[in-house]
């Protein structure tokens, strides 16, 4: 029989990759606490409508990549392609604007996109992100960006930089959409098929197109901000400078989602090649209201954990996962005592492992060497008689010792301390 395999575009993560993911998640949780963000866990599956209405019907995520299907109840449901609409939905559903608490959330979870599987791109991938709802001030935008940069610094990542831009408010946008549409219609023959089909629905999307975007960014008319939007953007820049954040203004940064208003930003790394964005986000002042909630300005970002893991793979050294002690049973009469020692060590918070006490001494010692442990604790006939246990040093030339069982934990800890900090 042909053994079953994981679905195409889906994968298993194994150690040491899982260790890098955990490292990133732990660093995120620590820094989120420092900035007063609380965890929110959102469902993996939502009504597809949620993303169609918020992320945007004409966005790549929804139009080409959304993992949606009709379930047994004949509902059109989707595996979440991103977290922001889910958090906004939760905010409205639970009336969190009335809770009186700071509405600052972080999430860590898997997202899904049904795009063609290709090198380094999976249909299920991990994102972590924050959403800060209810604060219209430029200080909220600045905080979001500062937090993102502080987090990356904490992970030890190198070679990354932030780019920011402003997309203006709905007033600026409506005016600009008209100008841009006029320009695009005049030059429609030069656009790709996708863009030709959707410029009427959403002309801004063309700026984001992989084929047409680069040329348009040079030639198409630029958005001009209204007075309020300019002031807001200047304040964000000022605050970022106060926080000593390195950033560039990139007037061509558009972010391919419908709900963004005013500030948008991305963090990129030249080490990642053409898919250079690690994280991105922006302000979305109209999203909550468009979902039936109260007028709630908001800002947030998300970061691709898989991308960051690639970046960190060669720059960080992770803590060694090896057990400290490997218990070996050298005589079948010592089986139970060996098993008891193993448990005593673990109860004493010493990481310990074993292979199979019924195997030969040689085979168990081979496993001990492979395990990366510092010590082997050997229980044989002699030791059983003496109520003791032999300690063999696996990483140094030190001579084998015998320790009494009633001092097992204390002595083992002492020896491990000495071995690790000579
Ligand atoms: Zn404006
Ligand atoms: Zn195009």
Per-chain topology:
Layout: H1 17-34, E1 38-39, E2 45-47, H2 48-56, H3 60-63, E3 67-70, E4 76-79, H4 84-93, E5 104-112, E6 124-133, H5 138-155, E7 160-166, H6 170-186, H7 193-198, H8 205-208, H9 213-219, H10 227-242, E8 247-249, E9 261-269, E10 277-283, H11 287-290, E11 298-304, H12 305-312, E12 325-329, H13 335-347, E13 352-353, H14 361-371, E14 375-379, H15 381-386, E15 388-393, E16 401-404, H16 408-420
Parallel strand pairs: 1-5, 7-8, 12-13, 12-14
Antiparallel strand pairs: 2-4, 3-4, 5-6, 6-11, 7-9, 9-10, 10-11, 14-15, 15-16
Helix pairs in contact: 1-5, 1-12, 5-10
Bound molecules: zinc ion (ZN) (2 copies).
Residues 191-192, 194-195, 206, 209, 211-212 line the site of one zinc ion.
Describe this structure in words.
The chain is α+β, with helices and mostly antiparallel strands and 422 residues long. It has 2 domains: 17-168 and 225-312, 2-Layer Sandwich (BirA Bifunctional Protein, domain 2), CATH 3.30.930; 325-420, Anticodon-binding domain (Rossmann fold). It is built from 16 helices and 16 strands. An 8-stranded mixed sheet has the order 1-5-6-11-10-9-7-8. Strands 13-12-14-15-16 form a 5-stranded mixed sheet, with helices on both faces. A hairpin with a 7-residue loop joins strand 9 (261-269) and strand 10 (277-283). Helix 1 crosses helix 12. The radius of gyration is 28 Å and the shape is elongated. Residues 168-169, 171-172, 225-226, 228-229 line the site of one zinc ion (ZN). One zinc ion binds at residues 191-192, 194-195, 206, 209, 211-212.
